[in-house]
Amino acid sequence: MDNRIRELRNEKGLRQEDLAGILNVSQQTISRIENGENSLPADILIDLSKFFRVSADYILKLSDARMTREYRIEAEKSLEKRMDFYRMYERLNRTNQEFIDLIMLRLEECQKKSE
Fold this sequence. Notes:
The chain is mainly α and about 120 residues long. The protein has helices spanning about 1-10, 15-25, 25-35, 40-50, 55-60, 70-90, 95-115.
């Protein structure tokens, strides 16, 4: 259990403090759970599962399947939507592709400024 939580946290590039803030617990709580010093309360297990989009069984090492069925369906829909966008983009001529590229860059810059 401790390795899975640490592994998931590290994959997202989060510090213990970051994850603690997201879950509304102390950094010490995260540290103790990761080190196996504290048991994992059910409410935190549920929050971890939702945040990392993995099954509780995966966190508890009862399964090696990371994705829940619901997340897998959601991911497939999201991928299909992105593929539709990509196919439309590929049908555009080079000038329009460059225009879309420029719009995306500007949107990204604006988003960074507002964060």
